[in-house]
Design goal:
Helix content: 10-25%
Low-confidence stretches: 258-266
Number of strands: 37
């Protein structure tokens, strides 16, 4: 695998980072093990590859005209250079930005994958140091006189003096930096690059491309200064003339206010240069199956109140439910395919309101095992409340186009997090959220511990103004949770960290309709429920798990319980589950969130954990379907079996009302009118497509020595 390719100054060589294809293939999450990465070059016309040096967490090679050195970055925000043989490494500059409310940890310029969205004690201790953010990417211009720096998601340019020693540059306030600097972005930006002549910087933000002309920006600033100076002189001359006139009229000049020529209480926006913005439109057809099929004779748990049809039919046309009722009562077209599912149970597709299915970042894969396994376990709708990067946006587009097998992919995009910002006012909050409403079009955001209550209120006001649905991080802080509730936040992620929850709080949450997704699988206040299931189940030998899950993932999580072994009475999740039972019975909204701990099967573990507090199986299924869909604002189309809704449902071999563990008896899954085999995720209607597992299904090691174990 080859990354970061760039031509040398003379165009005769291409420098790149070489990574082993097997490491990339074996990677089960967004990152891969880069310990074997090498910095290499190859002749531009083809030929042998020359290894310059081990990459050693250095990346982003680039060049300066007239110099025969290779410039690189590292994760400390440093700009480095080396000779072509890898020797004589020099650290030229370290560039930092604002001090955020929390911390940001990078690898190759990208956020490090933490434990999905839970902050470890180590990370929280690091946050106490309150260090400025390091640059994730630094590129010298072709002339070498200045560089751009990508810090968090903002882009700056700064002059880099050649002093022969390390220079520390802070761009926290670009206008007052120790060397000439300016901030290029207004709302954020990604993927910056210099034009060949070094006069313009290109970057993108979601669906837009920007070109920032540095010389034009400097000329614009100069013209503004000249105009302001002329205006100041005009005002001063006018005041002098007025004072002169009033002396003849016996008016005391000292009583004339200096702002008499200006309108009061009108705040003018300072004129400023803006990058040229071009909206990029890529047209594709959304997946739209064609066909009519009748599912006949199943038990239908409709989620329309407590309605259960013991022997019912569902008629699906294309991707919508066109009829539902007792067996034999529907008008069925003669061309319809009939599928007899007598004795089976049909429930709406499962909704995962807190789903971390982080696929490969950077270089994308063509199929995602995490998507496929969740779909095969009946999860047809997901909302990821923290994606780390924007890669999820293009993966979701591929699912919508039918190119990748998977559930519906909704997300907040990268969380509006404490590692990226230190919000100063409501205007800045509006600007930050415009990334999501205009450029990412996520429809959701996550307010992720972004500061004090006023800062959190700025964000929810901006979300309301831009019609974004926010959710919040629990953060093990009951007072924080309650103020989020009082301020109107409609979502809460992770368990409310106390037990029991008394009636006043239960009633307040229920009336507010804040949707609580407790993620019992990673419970606050005690051992994680995942440990309980790893101790009491045998997922390693589960044939379905083995079919979908890469070996590295299944073995690392199931052959040893890494966080210890606990007595049943030490488990905290049944206590939190009792609180969720009370909340549902009070009319509140609760969601099932698997947290991506053990993809697919873990969603069922979360349902079983939810039932451990005494919740009725029907209510558990409501939490997994209609309540979760309502919490995400999707209940008009999803969450129940009703005429006109999208054809998302799960066909179970066994009745979950008799035993909640029967949720894990998935025979078929219908998502968006396409029917998938529950054991293989291959499509069986209306088309026939076999799931391509080549991205993660690699050969097992073989004995090449002939020596028996």
């Amino acid at each position: 695998m080859f990354q970061n390719p760039v031509f040398s100054n003379d165009g005769n060589r291409i420098v790149f980072i070489r990574s082993t294809a097997q490491q990339y293939k074996n990677s089960v999450g967004p990152d891969y093990d880069g310990a074997e990465d090498e910095l290499c070059w190859i002749p531009a016309g083809g030929g042998d590859i020359t290894v310059i040096d081990k990459a050693n967490r250095r990346y982003n090679p680039h060049f300066v005209q007239g110099e025969d050195r290779i410039y690189l970055n590292n994760d400390n925000g440093n700009l480095l250079s080396i000779k072509w043989d890898g020797s004589d490494e020099k650290t030229i500059a370290r560039i930092t930005g604002i001090t955020t409310y929390g911390i940001s940890v990078l690898k190759n310029g990208k956020p490090v994958e933490a434990v999905n969205c839970l902050m470890s004690e180590k990370w929280m201790e690091a946050a106490e140091l309150n260090l400025p953010s390091s640059a994730g990417q630094i590129n010298l211009s072709p002339s070498g006189k200045r560089a751009f720096a990508l810090i968090n998601n903002e882009i700056y340019i700064v002059t880099i003096p050649k002093t022969g020693k390390l220079i520390n540059i802070s761009l926290a306030d670009a206008g007052s930096a120790q060397f000439p600097a300016r901030k290029l972005t207004e709302l954020g930006g990604e993927f910056p690059y210099w034009e060949t002549d070094g006069k313009k910087v290109h970057f993108s933000l979601g669906n837009a491309h920007f070109i920032y002309d540095v010389e034009s920006a400097e000329a614009f600033d100069d013209s503004v200064k000249i105009a302001k100076k002329a205006e100041d002189k005009r005002v001063a001359d006018s005041l002098a003339a007025i004072k002169s006139d009033t002396s003849r009229a016996k008016i005391d000049p000292s009583k004339i206010k200096t702002d008499s020529l200006a309108k009061k209480n009108i705040k003018k926006e300072e004129p400023r240069y803006k990058a040229v913005e071009t909206e990029v439109k890529v047209y594709y057809s959304k997946d739209q199956p064609q066909g009519v099929i009748l599912f006949k004779g199943a038990r239908l748990i409709t989620m329309d109140g407590d309605e259960i049809i013991e022997s019912g039919d569902i008629l699906v046309e294309n991707n919508r439910i066109r009829g539902i009722g007792k067996t034999g009562t529907l008008s069925v077209p003669a061309s319809a395919k009939i599928m007899d599912v007598s004795g089976k149970t049909i429930v709406p597709g499962f909704v995962d309101t807190h789903s971390h299915m982080w696929p490969q970042w950077g270089i994308h894969k063509n199929q995602v095992w995490k998507y496929a396994i969740n779909l095969a376990y009946g999860v047809t709708t997901t909302r990821d409340p923290q994606t780390g990067t924007t890669d999820v946006l293009t993966y979701a587009d591929m699912v919508d186009a039918g190119k990748i097998f998977g559930p519906r992919i909704y997300s907040t995009g990268p969380g509006v997090g404490f590692w990226g910002y230190n919000i100063k006012d409501s205007t800045q909050a509006e600007d930050i959220l415009r990334q999501y409403s205009k450029y990412y079009k996520t429809h959701y955001i996550k307010m992720y511990l972004t500061g004090n209550r006023q800062q959190r209120q700025w964000i929810i006001m901006a979300a309301r103004n831009q019609q974004l649905m926010p959710t919040t991080e629990g953060g093990l802080n009951l007072k924080l949770n309650i103020t989020n509730l009082l301020d109107g936040y409609p979502g809460h992620e992770h368990a409310i960290p106390v037990f029991p929850l008394y009636g006043d709080l239960i009633k307040s949450i229920a009336i507010s309709q804040m949707c609580v997704t407790p993620t019992l699988i990673v419970s606050y206040g005690g051992p994680f429920a995942e440990n309980y299931f790893w101790e009491t189940e045998n997922p390693y030998h589960d044939p379905k798990v083995q079919f979908f899950m890469p070996y590295e993932e299944i073995a690392s999580k199931t052959r040893r319980v890494k966080d210890g072994w606990f007595m049943p009475e030490e488990q905290v999740f049944p206590k939190h589950a009792k609180s969720m039972k009370s909340l549902v019975e009070a009319g509140g909204l609760v969601g099932i969130g698997s947290h991506g701990e053990f993809q697919g099967l873990c969603y069922h573990w979360e349902m079983w954990a939810m039932q451990s507090g005494g919740m009725k199986p029907l209510d558990v299924l409501k939490v997994a379907t209609i309540l979760g869909a309502t919490g995400l604002g999707l209940d008009k189309d999803l969450g129940s079996l009703k005429t006109g809704k999208l054809a998302d449902f799960v066909i179970l071999n066994n009745n979950p009302l008799e035993n909640i563990r029967n949720t894990n008896s998935v025979l078929y899954v219908m998502k968006n009118g396409r029917l998938y085999d529950g054991n293989t995720c291959s499509e069986i209607y209306p088309g026939q497509r076999i799931l391509d597992k080549s991205e993660w299904n690699y050969e097992k090691p073989t004995n090449t020595t002939g020596i028996k174990e």
